[in-house]
Amino acid sequence: MAALCRSGLKVGAAKVGPDYIDPGYHRLATGHPSRNLDCFLAPEPLIASLAARAGDGRDLLVIEGVMGLFDGAQPSPGQVDDGAAGLPVGSTAAVAFLTASPVVLVVDASAMSQSVAAVVHGFASWSADVPLAGVVLNRVASDSHEEGLRLALAPLGVPVLGVLRRESAFAWRDRHLGLVPVAERPAEIRAALVRLAAAVTAGLDLPALVRLASTAPVLPTSPLPVAVRPAELARPPRIAVAAGPAFSFVYPDNLERLAEAGAELADFDPVNDPALPAGTDALYAGGGFPEVYAEGLSENVPLRREVAAAVSSGLPTWAECGGLLWLSSSLDHLPLCGAIKARGSMTASLTLGYRTASVRRENPVAAAGSVLRGHEFHYSALTPAGTALRLSGRSGVRQEGYANSSLFGTYLHLHLGAEVTPAERFVAAAASRAAVRT
Fold this sequence. Notes:
The protein has two domains: 2-213, Rossmann fold (3-Layer(aba) Sandwich); 238-437, 3-Layer(aba) Sandwich (Rossmann fold). Helix content is 30%, strand content 26%. Residues 76-80 have low confidence and may be disordered. The chain has a six-stranded mixed beta sheet. Strand 4 (103-108), helix 5 and strand 5 form a beta-alpha-beta unit. The protein is globular and about 70 Å long. By secondary structure, it is an alpha/beta fold.
């Protein structure tokens, strides 16, 4: 993406799956918000519409896949895990099919010679609905290694669109199976993107990739839903949004939906800011890595006390994952806000996956009895876990989360790209609060 931008193109970006970190890198590379395309979190008929939104006003759209091309959601017991054209739900292949996008396979060739042909042949022949348009060979050791790989691939007729050499300087710091968020090291990541863009420009046939992108057809799209503003809104209610390095896991679609529904958004940093933004009518705290910043969050006593008092007094509050931990009494014995009477602790095992959630208690985000679709990704647990939601997934069914008429706190992440009801409800709650304050 950065290399294409350096060539003078306006590049749109999207990411397959429920990812926060990679889209942050996309935005830094392109200067444009990146969108998530996920067939579990959004109806399949709207995936092309979301892709069109990601590419609106751009010269081309680059969609980064997730895992392997055909890897998708694992089925729950008794369910069939087939989506578009029988492809795994949430897979890169399913999104490629739904958006009619040409597929370029990136192959780690560091430990291969002739076997690369078997790997590429397998991907190319797996599904007639997802034709392979080209290959990029990654982590190639030398000129002779590259020559052998090209000779092995030649009989397949799959174009080799570029080669990237093995280079230790391109190793990226990671955490919990993913990259370190851009918000933590923006200057370092900008410098790395400059080096990567130069390597991609030298090693890949960018004009061929652009020509390939131009073969994607213009698809008919359905209108995305639009959030409705509360009636007789005297002034935009002000929603304080937890931000900064500790809380960077918020989908831009969610923030846009809240603004679309009539809210004014005000960022604040829970590590450094001593108070909520003036005139706060509601609080939205998304995910992130609060454990990395737990000491700073704990030491910000004035803010902790204000948040606890505000939430207790009925401030409409939506907290997801890291935000849920921040509102809890403590994290590994470090005191936190205490707005939710539960203790957080880091765990050795990862809780990960798509979830269908039945809402058991009325709250400012979802009505009791409604069903939400979201995802979890956390190395932590809350004790007690709460009973506001009944989560169903491949690993079974369990209850978790805290909710009342003004609070929705859960490990469940929601994506509002194709859903507006949670934003409408939350802004309406904030507007009611604002009306009382006025």
